[in-house]
Amino acid sequence: MMAGQPEISVVIPLHNEAESLPELHAAVVAALVPYADRWEMVFVDDGSTDDSFERLKALREVDKRVKAVRLRSNQGKATALAAGFRETQGRIIVTLDADLQDDPKEIPRFLRKLAEGDDLVSGWKARRRDPWSRRFLSAIFNRVTSGLTGVKLHDFNCGFKAYRRSVIDELRLHGELHRFIPALASWRGFKVGEIEVEHHPRKYGRSKYGAERIPRGFFDLLTVLMLTRYTTRPLHLFGLLGVVMGSIGFGIVSYLSIGWLFGRWIAGRPLFILGTLLVITGIQLVSFGLLAEMIVYGSNRDNDPPVDVVLK
Q1: CB contact set of 86 (below 8 Å; sequence gap of 6+)
Q2: Are residues 117 and 242 in the same domain?
Q3: What integer best gives the mean pLDDT of the chain?
Q4: What is the pLDDT of residue 1?
Q5: Is residue 259 located within the same domain as residue 185?
Q6: Which of the 8 DSSP states describes residue 267?
Q7: Residue 279 shares a structural domain with residue 174
Q8: Nearest-5° Cα angle at 210, 177 to 26
Q9: How many Å apart are CA 208 and CA 176, to the nearest integer?
Q10: Domain span including residue 206
């Protein structure tokens, strides 16, 4: 039995991982032996169609430190994590996948890294036990994401992470934004660290990720860039795009107008239509940016600044 409020909460999202759950539970329990009963384990069944939830109920019967949340349908990892976070009580939250590729025995290493001063510690699967195609795509994704967000991590996709409660309290997850949690946390001023972790081959079942992640990941990256760089200054984005497109269009129209002065006919030329379209689009983008600035200004009172310490 667990005495008092737990200090560590382990959140594990899963989808059709019934075979791995007893072994995973035993591994987490073994890893947290030094912490006595000052921890809890929160499983989130993301609409599984096998008997995963039945296994979770059986684990709950023998270990009251286990909590189980079942979503009515498959909502995706970000939603599952958010549901799990809502049920946690610990001041430290650890997340890992349920497929046994993450090794729970490394949880104490994450906790020691947090104790050194980091607010979020992300795992780095330096030697991945995945097909070469997944490793190749992941390497490209990580390099692009690190360059565009400015967060210097080797592995954004790793689900093995540890957080302070303050980070979780400020995160708002939806869609597929779980991949970009370090970028979102860094934007809010939290210190993000990384440790290398062991990665095991999948023991049961099969991977839930396919080629459809590529376009979703691209659009999610655009979402994160918008949230972290331009939420409070949308005109900087839309205004820049509008000025660039409008300037190109104005240059095209000016070139054709000068030709018209020297007797060259411009009506009906595709280049003239393109130039006009670019000018109009540029004006619309700038106007859209101005309207967005007005909306941000009007709603800014509802956005809490990332205050760390107040001395009075």
Answers
A1: none
A2: no
A3: 85
A4: 47
A5: no
A6: T
A7: no
A8: 75
A9: 14
A10: 8-229
- pLDDT given for residue 19 in this prediction: 93
pLDDT tops 70 at residue 125: yes
Q: Taking the model in full, what pTM does it have?
A: 0.76
Give me the amino acid identity at 3.
A
Tell me phi and psi for residue 66, to 5 degrees: -90, 130
* pLDDT of 72 over the 60 cut: yes
Q: Do residues 276 and 171 share a domain?
A: no
Residues 6+ apart with CB under 8 A from 137: 214
Rounded to an integer, what distance in angstroms lies between the CA atom of residue 56 and that of residue 44?
9
- Could you read off the pLDDT of 182-225 as tens digits, one per residue? 998 998 889 999 999 998 888 876 766 655 566 666 777 777 77
Task: Give 108-115 contacts, CB < 8 A, sequence gap 24+.
Answer: 108/31, 108/34, 109/195, 109/197, 110/160, 110/161, 110/162, 110/195, 111/8, 111/162, 113/162, 113/193, 113/195, 114/162, 114/164
Block residue for tokens 């989130």 = 44
- Kindly report the backbone phi and psi dihedral angles of residue 94, in degrees, each rounded to the nearest multiple of 5, phi listed first: -115, 135
Tell me the CATH number at 206. 3.90.550.10
Distance CA 85, CA 53 (A): 18
In the block, residue with structure tokens 């130039």: 275
Closest CA to 46 of 66, 16, 6: 16
Cα separation, 311 vs 158, in Å, equals 37
- Tokens linked to 151: 């967060």
Task: Pick the closest to residue 2 from 36, 26, 27, 30 (CA basis).
Answer: 36
Locate tokens 């991977």: which residue? 207
pLDDT at residue 138, as a whole number: 82
Under DSSP, is residue 184 helix (H, G, I), strand (E, B) or coil?
A: helix
In a domain, 2, yes or no: no
Angle between helices 213-229 and 132-149 (to 10 degrees): 10
- Domain check: are 88 and 29 in the same one? yes
